[in-house]
Amino acid sequence: MKRCVMLISGRGSNMVSLLDALHPGECVTVISNRPEAGGLAIASARGIPVATVDHRGFVAREDFDAALAAEIDRHAPDLILLAGFMRILTAGFVEHFAGRMLNIHPSLLPAFPGVHTHRQALAAGVRLHGCSVHFVTPALDGGPIVAQAAVPVRVGDDEQSLSARVLVEEHQLYPRVARWFLDGRLSLAGGRVVLSGEVPVTGSLHAPQVD
Ligand code: GAR
Fold it and tell me: What is the position in ligand 1's atom list of the atom closest to the CA of 37?
């Protein structure tokens, strides 16, 4: 069975949706950069070992990333899942985990990288918004996109209503993509996403065409 590590910074709702989709034992640890992250207690209550590497204990970003990489490597994971992990990672860290680190981002990339994505979408006046799961590369939120899910932006939406609508899709999309990877169907080859097998067609999910 493959081994995965999850990185979180906050409440951990994506982490929960991922844990629900994994086999027991498949998630070997949950690591946070914030000791107060609500998701840590949820993971612990489910019997999953947790750890904190507090970024506030490091002056240089490289030193934090080295400590985090060491903590991850102790578990020898096949896959690292960033689930609401709100730190910018150095190129060295990202390259160390190349091809085995996924992130979920709350926008239809390449639109609205960075933070406050729902605010950005409302300000831009887009009518479609959503979320993206991508392989992590040194370019911030710029790695190869595996799959996306779209939602409408409705008249009267604010950041809260829009983010709630997107979050419902995040909780569907990320476990599905993680499952593809853990089942050996998804990989990165020459910087391109390779996906085999059948991909279900749903109203909001958009994934690569499969031969
Ligand atoms: C989610 O919306 C996730 O997509 C986003 O943070 C939220 C975390 O919520 N991630 C990013 O913005 C990464 N740049 P959660 O802790 O409930 O999963």
Answer: 16
